[in-house]
Amino acid sequence: MVSFSLARQIRRSKAKAPSNHGQNYARSGYPAGDNSEEANQRGQDNAAIWACLSVLLPVLSVGINAQVLVVLAVFLPFCLWLYRSNRISVNYLDHDGDFTLSQRLAYRVDYSFSVVPYVKAVTLMILTGALIMSSGMAIYLTSDDSLAESLWEATAGVGLDWTFVGDDDSSSYRVRTIGVLTNIGGLVVTALLLGIVSDAVSMYLDNLRKGSCRVVESNFTLVIGWSSKTIPMIEQIAKANISEKGGVVVILAERPKEEIEVDISANESKIGALGTRVVCRAGSALNLSDLQKVSVSNARSIVVLADPFVSEDQSDVRSIRILLSIISALKSNEDKKPRPSSLKVTVEVCNSENAPLIRSIDPSLIEPVIANGVIGRLLVHTARQPEVESVWETLLGFDDCEFYFQNWPDVENLTFGEVLYRFREAVPLGIRREGKGSVILNPTDDTLIEKGDEILVLAEDDDSYVPEKLTLFEPDHYSEDDLNSSLTDIFQKKSKSMSMRPARFKKLLIGWRRDIANLAQVLDKLLLPGSEFHIMSDLPVEFRESYLLRTTGGVANPSSHLKVVHHVGDAKTRKDLEKLDLASYSSIVVSTFSGDVQQVNVEDRDSQSIVTLLLVQEILKTSPSTQDVVVVGEIQDPRSRRMILDSGMAQAIIATNDLIAKSLAMVSEDSHVNRVLEDLFNVSGNEIQVVDCSLYIKNGEVLSFFEVMNRVRSARSIAIGYRRGNGELKLNPEDKLVPLTWTKMDRLVTLSYMEQDFCLPES
To answer: Which residues contact 313 (CB under 8 A, 6 or more apart)?
Structure first.
């Protein structure tokens, strides 16, 4: 019956070979056309295969039991079907025989092993079957065993029993030779099997190392992107999570996961000791599958870092695309898990002009942080008062005191002047109105605390302070006339203390910044009329003037009474620096942002800044002028900050990446902090000042910090800390009722409101 059916199949194959194989060519991707010869040839090949089977199976059926025959009848057609169903399609350029058989076979084998995932297992199975069949037939023909027994012995020799012939005397040398060859073939098959298993295990482990599985976490912080700010920011987030006994930070970046983990492991002692775990995944935030891999819908906050390897505008455009991908990923999961209202996406914005556009994408979700703008204005404030840098170094981040918002029903219907003296472990700074999202910094004493209002305080931690039921200190009450008189008196004291300083100031910026117009406007607001702002850069003057025209709406000089002067030169060349008469400037700022926007290497930027600072310091030392010049430097790597300060190259150093990382971490933990930073670095409004105690306190006078706060309050300011002599800076002193003896060497840190017509001379 088997032979009859196979013979009938041969006749069908011969009859239908041309038409069937023409269709097969079309399905397989072969070019349609005159392919009758190839189709006939393939039909003849099929006929030959079935003819071989029709001859082989009757031969094998001699002396074989029914079970083995069924196995063979199923096994061989299955192998043939598997081969036919997985044939590789090849679009031949020429059907006249340009490709040899060996070339075709080599190409198909190469393609199969590269694309078909299970081709190794199928190949091993075919080789094993062929070895068993050939060895079994050889044993059957050279021994007295039945075919079934011969096939079993061959199977045992291939993998189960390598000594199946043993030392049996009844076995002929031919059988033993076949047994040895079968054993060798079995070793080869076993080696192939072990290799395939090893490759499969290695591939699985590689996928695990590459982070292919989905992140199974919730209530974590997701950081998208990688830059020199990533690790400092993670350290700050880990410090913020100490009160919660640790947390989880997930990183999604377009770099190998192994490289990310190497960089993280170098700082694991700091991060791990704080109880925070870091999970890394390689991928692009523009890909929805990668966002789902990091479980973006389970995050409690998301931080999108700027791309340091492209221009500022390109980085902001990429951030916009990432935000659209995040919103799409969150919407795709809304049916399973609604988006939490507390979720915020903090975005590092490079160009301040792009911030409104980025926020408009989803104002309830997105919180842009204009990092460079904050640093630029901090440079200006530090050039006026170098001690401000150390204050901001303490305020930003979670190392010491931070900004916290909290609602306290106990202080509702009280005035802000009364709330100021209700906290032992905190200093109130302002109010956040419920529902409006606005933050009122340094409000007037008669501002009423309404229901639902949150009090902004400076405290060590969110659980380290509570309001007292009664006022700890009874303050003096000042009328509006008293306040104006006090302001006038303080201004006169400051002017008197500045009598030996020039009435007009010359500022020098070495380098270039994208927010240069904004810096000029800030200086115009703070400095006295007739002051000058000099800029030295390697950029052409025409480019700078056109840039100012473009960024200020057609005003070449963005200030009303501040003169802008341009200089062209190389900041690393002593000859160019000596042309500027450095001793004639009241302050010099060395910026790391040069005219080359593609200069992204942190070490190169810092190296240039250090070289410039050394040259400036050397030139000032050899200058005959006795005027004190404040030198402020900007660096990227915070590790160089202490070295520069100890060497005396500058009075203050702004560690850009460290401060930006701290700002991003604070906003990611509480988006309302961004309103505070925007107000403090705004052209008008409030600012952090470091002033002499003599403005408010007599030399040798004994006062508690609450009493000092009361006197400072008379000038529409809030005292938040102090520095005793050259000692350590203290913000939010622990016991504000303990009397202290104050001297003229002491300094006060205040939050002060600056009106439009009130210019603070430099200290």
So the answer is: 350, 351, 354
Name the token pair of 530.
């007739």
515 within 8 A of 548, measured Cβ to Cβ: no
User: pLDDT confidence of 431, banded at 50, 70, 90?
Assistant: very high
What separation in angstroms does the CA of 74 have from each of 79, 89, 171, 399, 439?
A: 9, 26, 32, 73, 79
So what's the pLDDT on residue 70?
A: 44
- Crossing angle of helices 656-669 and 371-384, rounded to 10°: 120
| Token couple for 329 | 């990923």
Contact (Cβ atoms closer than 8 angstroms) between residue 472 and residue 736: yes
User: What is the chain's length?
Assistant: 763
Measured CA to CA, the distance from residue 278 to residue 265 in angstroms comes to 10
CA distance 403 to 454: 12
The Cα–Cα gap between 237 and 245 comes to 12
- What's the mean pLDDT when you consider all of the chain? 77
Q: What is the pTM of this model?
A: 0.73
- Per-residue pLDDT reduced to its tens digit, 640-659: 777 787 777 888 888 888 88
**C-alpha to C-alpha distance for 505 and 487, rounded to whole angstroms:** 23
Distance between CA atoms of 346 and 241, rounded to whole angstroms?
Answer: 18
Do 228 and 636 touch, CB atoms closer than 8 A?
yes
> Among 30-44, 278-292, 685-699, which is the least confidently predicted range?
30-44
Measure CA of the first residue to CA of the last residue in the chain; give whole Å. Answer: 110
Rounded distance between C-alpha atoms, residue 670 and residue 519, angstroms = 27
Bridge partner list, 282: 253
Strands 344-349 and 454-459: unpaired
- pLDDT tens-place string over residues 660-675: 999 999 999 999 999 8
